[in-house]
Design brief:
The protein is an all-alpha fold. It has 13 helices and no strands.
Length: 318
């Protein structure tokens, strides 16, 4: 009984820590959409991405060295490369460019098509299950993205391009998550995040000249927001994400980020005074509803996976 009780307490504690990690990630990532809007007033998208990733790499590298974290092996290198290039490189540059054109709340809603894409990619690549209700969720979220696109297109070509860039960021985000999940089976969240962030920073080195020139003319607030983006949403937020991701499926973890858009919208309203176009609200609601529908199907599929058929010893694949 003592061993069972100890195991139960440990499981409850691990679950509570995972939930706390998710909450920290959601809050910090929502704040990032607002921070980008401040910082990209004086920094170009590529320069801001490089500055953020350099700060993040330095902030993560110190604890990696102090803790003497073990690094992933050669077999995990392809996954790390894909994660770093897509999620830390392409994602950041695309999102920064998008937020030059649309408000923080709208950007967060469009990028949040990512959980649907994660569920699809995880079903195909990681074999986490491919439930039929996923298609319904995809259609609902896509309809929401179309409505948001129509709402922003009424305000000019720049806003329409911003919506497209957000969708590019969503695909990069989804691809990065799916590539990261297998690496976390053999390496710590801290070392994986540091290496992926460093790879992303290296991919953005072509913007080093622009970063140097623009920082020379940037105000103190821009530099502070860039450091904040590197330390909080990147170093802390991505480590807490990786910690929780290592303890659940990519599809389920992706669905937790549907809380980011409402928070980003609230932060944008509060700190930036940004009131998005009226159609963005129902469009965003459809995006979130689509994720909810897809996750319901994903949950049922995992239950079915966990129940082996007669004569089979196969359990869940992840």
């Amino acid at each position: 009984m003592t061993a069972v009780a100890t195991g139960t307490v440990r499981a409850s504690r691990d679950r509570a820590v995972s939930i706390a990690a998710v909450a920290v990630t959601v809050a910090l990532w929502a704040s990032a959409f607002v921070a980008i809007r401040y910082a990209d007033r004086e920094l170009s998208p590529g320069a801001l991405a490089l500055g953020r990733l350099l700060v993040g790499s330095l902030a993560l590298g110190l604890p990696v060295l102090l803790r003497r974290e073990s690094l992933p092996g050669r077999r995990e290198l392809p996954g790390l490369m894909v994660c770093g290039l897509l999620w830390f490189g392409v994602y950041n540059v695309s999102l920064n460019a998008a937020e030059n054109r649309i408000d923080a709340g709208t950007a967060a809603m469009l990028v949040n098509v990512g959980p649907i894409l994660i569920a699809i990619f995880a079903g195909l690549i990681l074999r986490e299950g491919f439930p039929s209700r996923l298609f319904a969720g995809c259609l609902v979220s896509f309809a929401g993205a179309v409505i948001i696109g129509l709402a922003t297109s009424q305000h000019g070509l720049q806003e329409s391009l911003g919506a497209v860039l957000c969708l590019v960021a969503a695909f990069a985000y989804a691809g990065g998550v799916v590539a990261q999940k297998p690496v976390l089976r053999t390496a710590s969240p801290l070392s994986v995040t540091w290496l992926a962030c460093t790879i992303g920073a290296l991919s953005c080195l072509p913007y080093a000249g622009a970063l140097g020139r623009q920082l020379g003319h940037a105000g103190t607030s821009t530099i502070v927001w860039t450091i904040y983006l590197g330390v909080a949403p990147t170093a802390i937020g991505f480590v807490t994400w990786a910690y929780a991701l290592a303890r659940t499926t990519a599809g389920r973890m992706g669905s937790t980020t549907y809380l980011v858009p409402p928070l980003a919208l609230l932060f944008g309203w509060t700190f930036l005074g940004e009131v998005p176009p009226l159609l963005v609200l129902p469009g965003g609601a459809l995006c979130l509803a689509g994720v909810a529908v897809a996750r319901t199907g994903g949950r049922r599929a995992r239950v079915a996976q966990a129940t082996p058929s007669v004569g089979s010893s196969a359990g869940p694949t992840s």
